[in-house]
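re: the backbone from monday

yeah here it is again, tokenized this time
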């Protein structure tokens, strides 16, 4: 009963208090970090995407995320300083046993991993996420999941930013025992490429806008979950 009352009070607060007053201050303080991994994949590509997302989110939500990206390896103790980690690339990724243990502990303690296949990462990412959570499945998130409509309306589904294999774009999640989304994986969409500078991929403005809007949904979902 007490838990239900507390949840109701949180919901009311979120409705009547400006977003900036109820956001996770830890996430705003540290900002967004990128995962540096081994295996040969280009984890470092398009370094402007996280700063661009932070700028868009700040202008939209009134937040104050740093307009820089931090870089962290899964073997580093400072991994646990960042609530939000972004992972991308075109090729292979491979974690050591220590990195597997760290990533699992980090996510179980509240960390959120966003992985976006930049084309060619799918096989190795699925292999490594199974090593992190062998007992959990990547569950496809349909447009009824709150992430799609929590701020901007994507009830018709994920935007298709780049063609890749011309398959339908999909999002998958891994949840903890309490239903918290720990990992978000987007495939055949390449949302984060749409956060790059206009000259990087020469995407039309409307495509970049869709990508940034969905990125805003990801952050808004995290801040208000």
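seq for it, each position gets an aa:
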């Amino acid at each position: 009963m007490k838990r239900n009352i507390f949840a109701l009070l949180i919901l009311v607060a979120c409705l009547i208090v400006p977003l900036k007053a109820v956001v996770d201050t830890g996430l705003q303080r540290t900002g967004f970090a990128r995962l540096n991994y081994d295996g040969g994949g280009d984890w470092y590509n398009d370094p402007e995407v996280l700063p661009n997302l932070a700028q868009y989110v700040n202008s939209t939500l009134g937040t104050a995320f740093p307009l820089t990206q931090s870089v962290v390896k899964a073997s580093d103790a400072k991994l646990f300083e960042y609530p939000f980690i972004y992972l991308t690339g075109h090729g292979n990724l491979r974690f050591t046993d220590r990195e597997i243990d760290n990533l699992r502990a980090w996510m179980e303690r509240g960390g959120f991993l966003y992985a976006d296949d930049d084309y060619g990462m799918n096989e190795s990412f699925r292999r490594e996420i199974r090593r992190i959570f062998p007992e959990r499945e990547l569950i496809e998130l349909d447009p009824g999941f709150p992430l799609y409509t929590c701020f901007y309306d994507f009830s018709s589904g994920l935007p298709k930013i780049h063609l890749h294999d011309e398959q339908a774009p999909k999002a998958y999640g891994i949840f903890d025992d309490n239903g918290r989304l720990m990992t978000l994986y987007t495939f055949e969409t390449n949302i984060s490429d749409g956060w790059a500078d206009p000259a990087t991929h020469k995407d039309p403005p409307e495509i970049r806008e869709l990508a940034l809007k969905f990125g805003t949904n990801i952050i808004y979902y995290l801040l208000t979950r």
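Residues 1-23 have pLDDT under 50 and may be disordered. Residues 76 and 184 are 22 Å apart (CA to CA).
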